[in-house]
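Our working data are protein records whose layout never changes between entries. An example says more than a description, so a record of this kind follows.
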Amino acid sequence: MRPYEELIVAIPDYPKPGIVFQDLTPAFADGPSLAAMADDLAAPFADAGITKVVGAEARGFIIGAAVALRLGAGFVPCRKPGKLPRTVLAESYALEYGTDTLEIHADALGPDDKVLIVDDLVATGGTTTAMVRLVKASRAQLVGLGFVMELAFLRPRAVIAEATDAPVVSLVTVD
């Protein structure tokens, strides 16, 4: 077992009954575990020439920035609407009840960029596919996607496969 796996805490019935929330914050709070997560996500892409790592608000910022440092790449934050001060590209995605939107600065990525999307957790794939569309709208090359945890029972890889054929790496899988 990797050092961070034992620090992930399953919280039943949060934020509502029937949901088991996977709390990665204890693993982020432990220096060796955070370093191991960043190393393990960066390793499969070490020779891919990644120039930018894209991560979603908010926990994707934590692990995404750490992976970017490991790869010697820049970090591009995907934010909720109204949080970025300049011209943005926006993509909406479906939630269980309604929609949400992610934005990046319009000039954050370009055709010469090789991009790795990183997030703490992938569940239904909605946030991830919105990020994929943002990368494509920027004309950058999507090299791969990396997640600390994948809720495989929700079949996110099937949803991601409809948006991209880039490789997906998950460190911890919940079936």
Q: What stands out?
A: Residues 49-174 form a domain with the Rossmann fold fold (CATH 3.40.50.2020). The first strand starts at residue 9 and ends at 12. The chain has one domain: 49-174.
